[in-house]
Design a protein that fits this description.
By secondary structure, the protein is α/β, with parallel strands linked by helices. The protein has 8 helices and 7 strands, in the order βαβαβαβαβαβααβα. Strand 2, helix 2 (76-86) and strand 3 (90-95) form a beta-alpha-beta unit.
Length: 274
Amino acid sequence: MRPAPAPANRFRAGRAPRRTPPIDTLAHPTELSVIIPAYNEAERLPGTLAAVRAWMDGVGYPVELVVVDDGSRDGTGAIIEAAAAEDPRVRAVVQPENGGKGAAIEAGVKAARGGEVVFFDADLSYDLGYVAAARAALAAGADLAIGTRDAGPEDTRKRGYSLVRRAASWAFNRYVEGLLRLGVSDTQCGFKAFRREVAEALFDAIATRGFGFDVELLYLARRWGLEIALVPVGMEPRGGSSVNVLRHSVTMARDVLRIRRRARRGEYPATIPR
């Protein structure tokens, strides 16, 4: 595992969470809920679960792993349930139908018990060391901490992706900025962390359930005046993605138009519900 990066942008350097000897996570309030959405991930999920559980063994604070099966048809749900039966820190959420990535993460947020939540993809393309930077940003006052792959010396969105996918990513982010003015260059990074009450409020208010949900979350965060920290992250694409670039790009573009339409109609709360 690479060492944890420096604390997130716009925050003064702070301490990483203190490492302590392994503790009984069931006897202490859960500090962090790690949420992983999974759709037809039977092949690589066992390795991901093993890696995350090994990381949990060493962090020194109470953490749970919430894995959401989003209506998979390849036995993913059985793998998650077996892991939950073996390790009480693992919790299985099995959805009977495929509802989309946003819906899966929403289900994970509703099941979460930690004071903070972080989600990332089942391919584990983001190093777990970045969790420390995200938590440091939240501890420094941010409401949410979002990964950004273009803040370092290399834009890691370019790694392992075809020219078509890179062009689609660039065009989508320009399109989002033109319509919604989010001021975020990497809306679709799959690594994001929140204070739990903020995550609950955001997911309660959004309507997008597919891959475009990130944009709606960030639009609402801006609308509500929430503090957003940017966490520079690197990404190592693992391959085997179920994303159809052209089809999902069209769907996400439509989602963005719907978000702008809802905003113009005044369908979003003006402030975060308390």
